[in-house]
Specification:
Blueprint lengths: L2 H11 L2 H10 L1 H8 L9 H18 L8 H20 L7 H21 L5 H7 L4 H10 L25 H4 L11 H11 L2 H12 L4 H8 L3 H22 L1
Length: about 250
Amino acid sequence: METANLFKVYRNTGDVEIRNKLVEDNLYMVDVLIKKYLGKGVSYDDLYQVGALALISAVERFDPDKGFAFSSFATPTILGEIKKYFRDKEWAIKVPRRLKSLAGLIPQTRDELAQELSRNPSVKEIADRLETSEEMILEAMESSQAYQPMSLDQTFDETGDEGEGAVLERYTGREDQGFGTIEYAEIVRSVLDSLKDQDKQIFKMRFIENKTQAEVGDYLGISQMTVSRAEKNIKDKFLHEINREA
C-alpha cells in the first residue's frame, strides 16, 4: 500500500503496526539529516535516537489531507529536535581555529584514502596526506568532540575551511544553498526513486554504512570499478537534482 494510503489508514485507526511501518520506511531520512551534525560532541547513536523519536512524532502528527509530502513535514521536525538537543547540551569548550580547520579536513581525507586503499586508512596515512604529525591528527580528532553553542548552525564550509562529513553530505548537507523550497529528504527521495535496485544498495552501503568500494563489490559480487562508476552516477544524479532546484 502506498505511503499516502497508509497514513490515511493510520489516521483513521491509530494502528500501532502501521505507524511502526511508516517509521521504518522513513528512517533513511534520519540517517541523512544527522550527518551534518556528526563530529560536534554528540555520538551517532545519540543523534539517531533524537532523530528517530522526532520522526515518530512527525508520523503521529502528519495529516495526509493537507496535500503536501510527508518528507517536507518531517524534515523540519527532525532538524528542530536535533538543534534543540544541541542547545540543551550547552557545549562551551573553545577549540583553536587551527585544530578546527584540521578536524574539518580529516573526514574528507579519510574518505579519499579509503577509496584509494580499499580499506580504512591509519592515522599515520592521514597525517602524511595532510602533511602534519600523527599527534596533531589525534588532537584534532579529539577536539572535534567539542562544540560551541554560538556556532550551532555553522559548518566548516561556512568558515572557509574545507570538507566536513562523509561524501554524501557534500551533496545533500546544505540547508540554505541550492534547495530553495525543497527539503533534504525531497532531494534524496527523488534520486532514490530514479535508481535501480543495485544502485540503491550501493547508495546505502557507501553513503550510509560507509563501506569501502571493495567491501561493496564483494558483497554484491561485482567489480570495484563497477561500484566506482555507479557511485559517480549517483553523485551526478544528486548534483543534477540540486542544480535543477537551484
